[in-house]
Amino acid sequence: MSSDPAPVPGVERPVISALDIVRTIVLVVAVASLALWGFATWSLPWNIIIGIGAPVIVILIWALFLSPRAVLRVHPFLRAAVELLVYVGVTIAWWSMGQALIGTAFALVAVVAGVLSGRRALS
Hints:
- This protein has helices spanning 18-41, 46-66, 76-96, 100-122.
- With 123 residues, it is mostly helical.
- 16% of the residues are buried.
């Protein structure tokens, strides 16, 4: 018996690669990092505002420009610039918490995943 369900006419399933999984993990880590930065770095009441607000802003930016079903379709280079700005913000947040090694590792993984994904999208 086959483990694949019967194909439905007119419906195409997206092919999910390992790169898509890595990019999803990078996004989740970015949102969690900004929440941690907001709650840990700032004093009351700013820690609540920034700890909730920064991740919400990143999620909105992702939904507007970077998601597979983005609200605003932009040129791939502008999309890459927006993604890079998000990752730079997360890296700076780690650095401001005194965790330069974690910030640099995050930036390296995020940029490599973004470059590979951008090359795949352009080809």
